[in-house]
User: Fold this.
Amino acid sequence: MATLAFSAVGTALGGPIGGAIGTLVGRQVDTALFGTSRQGARLKELDVTTSSYGQTIPRHFGRMRAAGTMIWATELVEHSETQGSKGSASTTTYSYTANFAVALASRPIQRIGRIWADGKLLRGADGDLKVGGEMRIYTGHGDQPTDPLIAASEGEQRCPAHRGLAYVVFEDLDLTDYYNRIPSLTFEVIADDAFGLQDLMGDGLDQIDADVPLGGIAGYACETALIDDVQTIDQVIPLRIDVAGDRIVIGRERLQDAAIQLPEAAIATDDDSFGAASGYARNRAAPSPQPPTVLRYYDLDRDYQASAQRASGRAAPGEPRTIELPAVLDATTARTLIEQTSRRIDWSRDTVSWRTSELNTKVAPGALVALPGIAGQWVVTQWEWRDGGVELALERVLPTGADVAPQLAADAGRGNSPLDAPPGQTTIIAFEMPMDGEDSGSARQYAAVSSTSSNWSGAALYADRGDGELHPLGGSGRTRAIIGAATSVLPIASPLLFDRGTQLAVTLIDPAMQLASADTRQLAYGANLALVGDEIVQFARASSLGEGRWGLEGLLRGLGGSEAAIGAHVTGEPFVLLSSPLVALDAATLGSDTKRQVLAVGRGDTDPVASSVRLDGLTLRPLAPVHPRRAIRSDGGWTLTWTRRARGVRYWQDGIDTPLVEQSETYIVTLGPLDAPDMLWSVSEAMLDLPTTTLASLSATWPGATLRVRQQGTHALSDPLTLCTIP
Assistant:
């Protein structure tokens, strides 16, 4: 505010130069009124991967999250897949992959942890890629080889091994989830298990003793000059440097077991010297109007997002002064550091100028000393050898107990971390559905594809026509079908009645999946249609039994022509909710061989999972006739009748015969075994007349034989209906 005011006045009086001077004056006023808001290297929010010539590649220590620098890439690779059967429209799907390399650190590292792409996990903590592709990690050691992909693209003579540089190479990285572009990447770099200040100094500085532990700092990245890093860390961990002698010593107090006891102060003879009568001068500076009370850092438990901790105590007026520490910490360590820093600054206001006549080489900047007659411990900040003696500048250090941070709560807040779960394994169940509407002459084949984990990105589907050759059927999509297994056996029941007494127990493959109840009106419109084994049923009530187990009651059985499977149920047979997302399969691609299978391959599958086609032929097979009747005429002959049903017709309205779906109405009546009948009749109406003579001949030749009828459809024969037995 003052900056703007003084700048405006200066510009009006002195032009541009006056404005600049006014700006400087105004900043001083603002600082005096409000305090300096931040000090230290400013924390950067998580960068994105860039590729700029001459860009600095940092040295990482401990654990850091870094964007990296792209050092090599090819053009995007286009992939196309055409699907469609003969005589129908084909669809071509395009996808894109990328090949590129990203440099991460200019010193060797141990490994790479998680990788984020556009904020989502591209690689989990277990090393699993969440999308298709391959990644190779080069840790930057002196023996790392050249990357084969880069070498093949650029040639051996133009492909360095980048020894001393840690980098990763992505090959055929699937870009479908990232709008067909290379996403913004950040990497969790694990460079060291532990490190100290000496590691930051490097191996090239032999004359520096910097074996200072950086307690609690889990990661740090050196991107600027070394002195900048020392000044940054010195904000929270004092790094007093002694440059006298043949070695540079940082943090000399770590070399002491106890404080050095100084001798009595020496009296000065010069008139302008401090403490002429006592040999020392003590001063306590006024408290800072804006002491640092906030520490910003990268939080280890929040995926390295920037976070802040505040020191306890009364808040000063104005904006709080913030220390920017671009290091990785946990919340407890950060709270401890800002508490200790705040207290240390307060105690360091107490200073002493001390003169001694003895020269002790151990009393140097950073050394802890004790003074005769003055309580407490003091740290040497400066010393000067003069004619009257050695003059020392001392600061008070935190007394014993005050250097321990109080047990205060430290919470970095809850981070919205992306789910890091292993890729789910695929489950598939293929089946045919009854005809719905007009007869297209093609089987309605579907696959219910799902997974036990919500971290499942779908699967690629293939058809095996029985010869082992795979034909693509497309993708399953990411939405999971509701699949489970029956843990109880459905008893035999009538398909003509509403079963109120049976409960079917099913267990879904993921406990998070849900089933819902339905009323009779919803049932009439097809709600809660399910496949249990080879039978299609409906259920009215679904009761949760916990842990993914459900009890289903109020059952309609044998729907869609599946009544033949009513008596063939076993424990563990598959359960599929048919109203959940299903994948339509191309019947021409799948073929008609009885050994055909549908295979699915997802990222979490080590091998393809396969399913045969359940309810094979259900779409094109006429429904079995119902309601067999036998009339005995006065002459002893029989008249056998039945009621036909039509495919694709769910309701029987107004008592009118359902429309005939087949090209003609034909029935095959057989006597004896179905596969090799003893006698056969073909009739064009739902009736068979057996005269007395025919009936007598049948009784004499095949007594006890069974008469069955099947409808001859356009594409297949229906299941048989038992009419009667020959006496």
User: Anything to note?
Assistant: The chain has a mean pLDDT of 86.
